């Protein structure tokens, strides 16, 4: 059965996304306890830094849960376009949080490097915990990314890649601990320094991506071309121009001018536009499509076709209808 034209494509139950986020919270909470305890007992600043990274994961997971709940609320009088931007705002705050955490870790590690005499040899238990965290976080990343792609959720995807950055940081921590055990005491704070850089970098990427969405940046060319193809393939649509897109959380808002035969009635043109709208919303994560009917009174000449090909957004020429 076709989806209603008033609803976007049916995606899997978002409860699946909530379950993946709750799983991440449980896993990271357990890792935090172990990493902090062993890191302090084994004198590993890098392992404690990795625990801070895990803590930022828990905070980001909570943000994801709250954003997911509010972002799916129906439009109301104060928010006629819905609440999808709540997810974008949450991603923006998450990115800022990661930058702050990363910079703080950088400062702490840099301070430790200024006093090498105070550094200790790290205990072997820290290496075992770092390797355990590496394996657990990599598995968690793969699980969360699979769910994010299935749900087409940018926020869940960002959270999954945050888990991957955690796995990478655990690898750095393990390498630093191995070097420390081999007789290089500076390796542990250096590993903590690298982890701080990784966290700040990931946060900056999240922040910039969310900022671009809030600034109504268009979707990438590949997504836009797919949307254009769905519109153009609709029976009765003679051409597509002035296609505009912008992100609304995980969804896309579309505005477009559709070229149709000028001899059509208003009702016929409306039916074609609705069919084009439904096609796009069934196949792409599109929240809504605002269409405008541009009448075309006759077929275009080859010169018109060349001009249209060089400038797809240009309006088509209006020519008198041919006499029958």
Sequence-ordered SSE layout with sheet pairings:
Layout: H1 15-41, H2 45-71, H3 85-113, H4 124-151, H5 154-181, H6 187-214, H7 221-232, E1 239-248, E2 251-261, H8 266-283, E3 286-296, H9 302-310
Parallel strand pairs: 2-3
Antiparallel strand pairs: 1-2
Between the first and last Cα atoms, what is the distance in angstroms? 41 Å
Helicity, as a percent range: 55-70%
What's the alpha carbon Rg, rounded to whole Å? Answer: 26 Å
Q: Report the CATH topology name of the largest domain.
A: Alpha-lytic protease prodomain-like
Enumerate how many helices there are, as a single number.
9
* Average residue pLDDT: 81
Structural class comes to mainly alpha
CATH architecture of the largest domain: Up-down Bundle
Strand order of the largest sheet: 1-2-3
How many structurally independent domains?
Answer: 2
- Residue ranges: pLDDT <50 for 5 or more in a row? 1-12, 320-324
Largest sheet descriptor: 3 strands, mixed
CATH class of the largest domain: Mainly Alpha
- Kindly estimate the percentage of residues that lie in beta strands according to DSSP: 5-15%
Order of helices and strands: HHHHHHHEEHEH
Q: What is the approximate shape?
A: elongated
What's the name of the CATH homologous superfamily of the largest domain?
Cation efflux protein transmembrane domain
């Amino acid at each position: 059965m076709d989806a209603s034209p008033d609803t976007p494509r049916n995606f899997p139950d978002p409860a699946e996304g909530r379950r993946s986020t709750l799983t991440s919270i449980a896993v990271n909470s357990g890792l935090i306890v172990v990493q902090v305890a062993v890191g302090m007992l084994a004198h590993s600043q890098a392992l404690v830094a990795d625990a801070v990274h895990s803590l930022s994961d828990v905070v980001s997971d909570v943000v994801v849960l709250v954003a997911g709940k509010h972002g799916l609320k129906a439009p109301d009088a104060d928010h006629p376009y819905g609440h999808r931007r709540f997810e974008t705002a949450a991603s923006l705050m998450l990115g800022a949080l990661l930058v702050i955490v990363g910079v703080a870790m950088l400062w702490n590690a840099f301070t430790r490097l200024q006093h090498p005499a105070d550094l200790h040899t790290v205990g072997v238990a820290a290496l075992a915990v770092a390797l355990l965290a590496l394996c657990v976080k990599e598995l968690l990343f793969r699980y969360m990314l699979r769910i994010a792609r299935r749900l087409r959720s940018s926020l869940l995807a960002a959270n999954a890649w945050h888990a991957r950055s955690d796995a990478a940081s655990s690898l750095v921590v393990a390498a630093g601990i191995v070097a420390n055990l081999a007789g290089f005491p500076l390796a542990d704070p250096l590993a903590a320094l690298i982890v701080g850089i990784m966290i700040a970098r990931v946060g900056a990427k999240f922040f910039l991506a969310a900022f671009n969405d809030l600034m109504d940046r268009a979707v990438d060319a590949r997504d836009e071309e797919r949307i254009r193809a769905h519109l153009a393939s609709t029976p009765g649509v003679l051409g597509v121009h002035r296609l505009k897109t912008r992100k609304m959380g995980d969804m896309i808002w579309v505005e477009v001018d559709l070229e149709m035969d000028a001899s059509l009635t208003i009702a016929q043109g409306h039916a074609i536009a609705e069919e084009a709208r439904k096609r796009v919303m069934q196949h792409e994560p599109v929240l809504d499509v605002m269409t405008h009917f541009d009448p075309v009174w006759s077929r275009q000449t080859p010169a018109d076709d060349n001009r249209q090909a060089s400038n797809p957004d240009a309006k088509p020429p209006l020519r008198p209808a041919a006499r029958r």
